[in-house]
Each structure stands twice: as C-alpha cells, then as structure tokens.
Amino acid sequence: MHPVLFHIGAIVIPAYGALAALGVLLGLALAQRTARRLGLDRTRMWNLCVIALFSALIGQRLLLVTMNLGTLSRHPSWALALAMVHHPLLAGAGAVAGSLAALLYARRQRLPLLSFADALAAPLSLGLAFEQLGALLAGSGWGVDAPERLPWAVTYSSVLAAHWSGTPLGIPLHPVQAYAALGLLLLAIAAFLGLGWRHQPGDVAGGWLMGLGTVIFLTELWRDPEGRGRLLQGAVDGPQLAAVAAVIAGAWLLAERAAEQGK
User: Residue 77 forms beta bridges with which residues?
Assistant: First the structure.
C-alpha cells in the first residue's frame, strides 16, 4: 500500500496522518450539523470537540514519550519519529484522555451531557472510519494471513510500513482496516438517522456504544494479534475487552433511559 501519501519537496506527508486529519475535519463539520439538529449550542460543541481532540493527542504523545524515555534520552532527535508510531494502546490512551477532558468541560459548562453524546455519535464514527482508511494505507493494525486467491487481500511491500508499524511484507493479508472502516461508516449513518428517531436523550449514544463495541469485537477476529494484548489465555485481546465494556455500557444506558421513561 502507500504509507506515504505524497511529498512536498523534502517534506513527507504520511497517509495515516493525512486521512486521520481529514476524518477529524469531517467529524467536526458533522458535529456542527448534528448539534444544530438537536438544538444544541454549536460554539460549545466546537469547543468540546477541540478540547477532547487536543487532550487525546497530548495523552497519546505523553504515553509514547514515557514508554520510550530511555531511548529518547540517548537519541533526542528520534522524538520526531514518534508521530509515525501506531499502536492500539495509544488509541486507548487517547480515547480515555479525550473522554475525560470532554466530560470535565461538559460538567463545567453544565451542558446536557446525554444530548451532546447523541450528537457526537455520528461524527466520532465518521472520524474513526477515515482513521482506519489511513491505517489501511499505512499498514497499521494489519490483518491475519488471507486465504489463497482472496480477491480483496492486500500485500504490503513498502519498507516504511515495516519500519513505522512492523507490517509484514510480501504476504497477502485480510484488509481488516477496510472492514472496520465500512462498519464504522454504517454506524455513522445509523447514528445520524437515529437523531430523528430518538425518544429521549441518550438513546442514540447507548445504541452507538453497542454498535461500536460490536464493530471492534468482530473486526478484531481478522486482525493480527501482534501487540494487541492477549487476555484470558488468548481468548480475547485488549480491544475486544474494551469492546465488551462498550456494549455493556451502551446496554446499561439504554436500560436506564427506558426505566426513566417508564416512570
């Protein structure tokens, strides 16, 4: 595939970063639309998204620096290459940091948390779909070996993919990132349409959490387990455990909202 999207002189534009940035921009634009659709303050929605985004990036970079502190102390210039590193642990750290920052901002501003969560479901899915397309081009989070003659198998040949992400070269693999991107895109559409169908705040967010967990759990079945943290004697990996937690949280939220409505 193409870990480098293009060059501007001596400047390298990585495919992962470019697609992830595009996903962020599209997600921010969609968040403005969903906020307007639910009658929410679009300025505060913008502020919440930007705060969460920068908190996620800072959380990821701090974790990377902490994990590589010894190496960076010997080779400080290698800090420039940290932006090319992709790992599921980083995604988790970014999600936690971004979510905590968004929650603190929402509570400080006394925002209707569940309505904002409903409005953010579709934008988050759209942004994550583009992030997975970037991972597909970069070779990050690659799939397991594909059966012979699988028409849509991908074979990486770029040494940069191997250097930046550890991608195996010359082996047909399942394009699991494309599977995830498709699932996330469908989830974004469902969450957007769900805004017109919801009965009360939190309905869309609860369904989205369950859908997100399902997409992550199923697509992990086709991901190479390298570096993903095998748990319970290899029965599940780290992202799958997080996916189960998301499904449980979504189901609990829907049950709570149904109980509130029944009172």
Answer: none
Q: What is the pLDDT of residues 198-255, one digit of tens each?
A: 889 999 999 999 999 999 999 999 998 876 767 776 677 788 888 999 999 999 999 9
Element (H, E) at 61: helix 42-67
Strand partners, 173: 145, 154
Could you tell me the CA-to-CA distances from 35 to 42, 51, 199, 240 in Å, in that order?
Answer: 6, 16, 17, 31
Domain boundaries, the chain: 4-38+113-262, 41-111
pTM of the model: 0.87
> Tokens 């869309």 belong to which residue?
204
Distance CA 117, CA 121 (A): 6
* 226: nearest Cα among 128, 136, 140, 133: 140
Residue 106 corresponds to which tokens in the numbers above? 């929402």
Provide the pairing of β-strand 230-231 with 236-237.
Answer: antiparallel
